[in-house]
Amino acid sequence: MLRKIATYLFCAVAIVLFLLYLAYGYRLVEKRRGEELCTSIKVTVADSSVNRFISKEEIVKLIKKSEYNPLKRVRKEIPLADIERLLMTKSAIKSSNVSIANDGVLRARVTQRRPILRIQGENSGFYIDNEGYIFPLVASYTSYVPIVTGHIPIEFNNNTRNTLGGVHDQWVKKIVTLGEYIDNDRLWNSMIQQIEIDKDGVVTLYTVLGDQKIIFGKIKRIEEIDYKFAKLNTFYQEIAPTVGWDVYSEVNLSYSDQIVCRKRAIKKKS
């Protein structure tokens, strides 16, 4: 019995010593890794095939020029969270993730914001995404989304980059609702090129097909938006092909259960 107990104790002590050895070895390896130098920076722009607001080269340059430049610094001294926050100062970047692997390569993965509309004010233009986030245009790249013009109740400046609250909140929510609907529909996304808004909030659409003014009316519930686009589809599928594409100058979708069309004025021969 004593021999069995001694055997068990010996095995237990051996296991504990082995685990302590592994833990000590792991700490040595981690310490050695932490003292390894960062040798390069590798950037991945997750959605670069969709938008090109920022390039890999720009991100690398931004990191290198900052006080957080990781090159030739030991791994444990590299402030990864600070580098992530640095990347987020670029308004077109929606998210960033920075890590450094055992090979000494700092890897930065970023996702860009995807605009659904371009808001054009009197002196400047901005993009807006599906979260209502507004950010400036980029000189090196243009995203071809519908342009919102007319009565824009937002004062723009070069520092406008965020979700807006207060008195502009409802206006932004309404325009985003319309923009999302268009963005999610393949047909209308390819056809709607301009959204004009008057001082009363009445929306007029302009499409790439024909030169009619599409009086859409005020933006309200999503169900009404869907219903009005269904009526517009009826005009394009049934009315225009029958009477001719150039007969009407205006198509009004504001009225319930009907499409009101205005004929184009006939030019008198001189």
Keywords:
Rossmann fold, 3-stranded mixed sheet, 13 strands, Ubiquitin-like (UB roll), 10-stranded mixed sheet, 2 domains, 270 residues, single chain, alpha/beta
List SSEs in N-to-C order. HEHHEEEEEEEHHEEEHEE
User: Would you identify the CATH architecture of the largest domain?
Assistant: 3-Layer(aba) Sandwich
CATH topology of the largest domain: Rossmann fold
Strand content: 25-35%
The mean pLDDT is 85
Q: What is the H level of CATH, i.e. the homologous superfamily of the largest domain?
A: Cell division protein FtsQ/DivIB
- What's the overall geometry? elongated
The percentage helix is: 25-40%
**The CATH class of the largest domain:** Alpha Beta
- Oligomeric composition of the shown chains: single chain
Distance from first to last alpha carbon: 125 Å
Q: What is the count of DSSP helices, taking H or I runs of 4+ residues?
A: 6
Largest sheet: 10 strands, mixed
Q: How would you write the strand order of the largest sheet?
A: 8-6-5-4-7-9-10-11-12-13
Q: What are the SSEs and their pairings?
A:
Blueprint: H1 2-34, E1 40-45, H2 56-65, H3 80-87, E2 93-100, E3 105-112, E4 115-120, E5 125-129, E6 133-136, E7 147-150, E8 162-163, H4 169-184, H5 186-191, E9 192-197, E10 202-207, E11 213-218, H6 222-243, E12 248-252, E13 260-263
Parallel strand pairs: 1-3, 4-7, 7-9, 11-12
Antiparallel strand pairs: 2-3, 4-5, 5-6, 6-8, 9-10, 10-11, 12-13
